[in-house]
Design goal:
The protein is an alpha/beta fold and 187 residues long. 37% of the residues lie in helices and 21% in strands. It has 4 helices and 8 strands. It has a 4-stranded mixed beta sheet with strand order 1-8-7-6. Helix 1 packs antiparallel against helix 2 and helix 1 crosses helix 3. The longest helix has 21 residues. It is globular, with a radius of gyration of 18 Å. 35% of the residues are buried. The mean pLDDT is 78.
Length: 187
């Protein structure tokens, strides 16, 4: 009897529209957790936390171009339902993917920044949402980096390296998004 094996990749996207609370803590099983709206993320591998922190450092570097202070991000549509998830990050991912969309380039007029690592994407539709995620992921990374036994660089060292990479290599998609947003404001 032949059996067929199917490998499936889980995908979860969490949409955050505005200011919200994040809470990094050590869970009851002594494993670090980050609580964000609709999800609890458990870190079983220190590299996963570092990669997420790098992604949010990159998103923070794009913040002023995607969500300038003077531009109203509009109103995000309320979801019809919410899903509460428990996500376990137990592998060592290589890199976060950061995507940016200006309000001018968006069909609904709302800019967005998202960070994806593996099958999890956190998408933010406002400056406040991005700032909350940056604070939460920094706190989660600090919990592991300051432990000292893992050999991780400090949160500031990671952020500085990401800033240096932006200066050295630039971000083509970011420049295009910023140009489209500027064009949308002048019309």
């Amino acid at each position: 009897m032949d059996t067929e094996t199917v490998d499936a990749v889980s995908r979860l996207t969490i949409h955050l529209g505005g200011e919200h609370e994040t809470d990094a803590q050590i869970g009851i099983t002594l494993i670090p957790l980050l609580k964000i709206p609709t999800a609890v993320i458990e870190f079983r591998h220190p590299t996963a936390v570092r990669v997420w922190w790098e992604g949010w450092c990159e998103a923070a570097a794009m913040l002023d171009r995607i969500f300038p202070q003077q531009v109203d991000a509009g109103k995000a549509r309320a979801p019809e339902f919410s899903i509460n998830s428990f996500v376990i990050l137990e592998d060592a991912p290589r890199r976060a993917k950061v995507r940016a969309r200006s309000a001018a380039a968006s069909p609904d007029g709302i800019g967005a920044l998202s960070v994806t690592v593996g099958g999890l994407t956190i998408a933010c539709a406002s400056r406040a949402a991005v700032e909350c995620q940056v604070r939460g992921w920094r706190e989660a990374y600090e919990m592991l980096a300051l432990d000292g036994g893992l050999g991780l660089p400090s949160p500031d060292e990671v952020a500085e390296r990401v800033r240096a990479d932006h200066i050295r290599y630039g971000v083509y998609e970011l420049l295009m998004a910023a140009e489209k947003q500027q064009a949308g404001r002048t019309r």
